[in-house]
Amino acid sequence: MIKPRNVNTEFELGGINHVALVCADMQRTVDFYSGVLGMPLIKSLDLPNGMGQHFFFDAGGGSCVAFFWFTEAPDRVPGVSSPDALPGLGEIVSAVSTMNHLAFHVPEEQFDAYRQKLKDKGVRVGPVLNHDESPAQVARHLHPGVYVRSFYFTDPDGITLEFACWTKEFTESDTVTVPRTAADRRIPIA
């Protein structure tokens, strides 16, 4: 299984402890993440003063996905708080400081089977995207220039999820893109 294994010279990080998201219905979230995706629920609690709940699911490899359910959380705004569509099917832009999507690493040899398994469970999945360096940055077929294969789907609250597998080792030539700044942004006029 190919995974990046670079050394951090500043901090000894062991990966992601957890990512915390917000849901509208905790029971529906438990049903999806434990029932559909098979992620064990490992911790659940009620927040103080009736504020809501906080639940943690084991995502494998020591990583967790956590959810808040707040009694006063505002509704999702597609195209602002989250993408409007799945990658490969429509607009994927979301606002600054939002979580655009959450990707789970899956074994390359199980990639196609896992996609079919989700479909069999009634989950709508997007097309397979073979991410490469072509002008479109995605190829129809797997080839030596593909660095990651993925497909996307959403949870019951519209959170975009991805199953992805790296297909090549990265080198210094993979980090030559010059970073842009806030001054480069084109903010849409409302």
Automatic annotation (TrEMBL):
Gene3D superfamilies: 2,3-Dihydroxybiphenyl 1,2-Dioxygenase, domain 1. CDD domains: VOC. It comes from the Bacteria. This is Uncharacterized protein.
